[in-house]
Write a sequence for this structure.
C-alpha cells in the first residue's frame, strides 16, 4: 500500500498522536524516526512528511466533538475508550510545537541527510500542495476575474 501511495505521487504524514504510535505515549523518538525511515525505504523520501495530529492546548471537549460527528448519535471512542475518553499524553519527544527541532534531530540520527530532513519537515508538503492545489487556485482566480 505504501509503495502504491508513493508511486501515485501521494503523501504520507507521520502522526505523533499516541494512539497511532508503537508503544503509545511511551513511544521513543528513535522508534518514531525508525518508522519514518522504513516508510522512506518503501515509498521514497519525497512522499513523506510530518503530520503531527497535534491538538495543542485543546480541551477534551474537542476530542468529544470529533468523536460524536453528525453521522452517529452514540459516542465513538476511536482508539480510546470510555475509561480513557480524553487526549492521551503526548510522547516525551513531542509535547508541543516547540519540539519540532527534536524531530529534525531524530531524523538526522536515523540517517537522513540535511536535505532529506528539510524535505520531511515541510519541504515535501510545500511541493505537494503547490503541485496539487496551485492549478485549482489559478483556475478559481481566472474564473473570478472573468466574472
Amino acid at each position: 500500500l505504501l509503495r502504491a501511495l508513493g508511486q501515485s505521487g501521494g503523501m504520507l504524514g507521520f502522526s505523533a498522536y499516541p494512539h497511532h504510535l508503537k508503544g503509545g505515549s511511551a513511544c521513543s523518538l528513535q522508534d518514531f524516526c525508525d518508522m519514518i525511515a522504513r516508510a522512506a525505504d518503501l515509498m521514497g523520501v519525497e512522499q513523506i512528511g510530518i503530520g503531527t495530529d497535534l491538538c495543542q492546548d485543546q480541551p477534551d471537549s474537542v476530542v468529544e466533538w470529533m468523536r460524536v460527528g453528525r453521522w452517529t448519535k452514540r459516542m465513538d471512542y476511536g482508539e480510546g475508550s470510555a475509561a480513557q475518553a480524553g487526549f492521551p499524553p503526548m510522547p516525551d519527544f513531542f509535547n508541543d510545537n516547540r519540539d519540532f527541532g527534536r524531530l529534525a534531530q531524530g531524523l538526522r540520527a536515523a540517517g537522513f541527510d540535511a536535505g532529506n530532513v528539510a524535505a520531511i519537515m515541510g519541504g515535501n508538503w510545500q511541493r505537494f500542495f503547490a503541485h496539487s492545489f496551485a492549478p485549482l487556485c489559478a483556475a478559481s482566480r481566472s474564473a473570478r476575474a472573468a466574472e
Q: What stands out?
A: The chain has five helices and two strands. Residues 114-146 form the longest helix (33 residues). The mean pLDDT is 85.
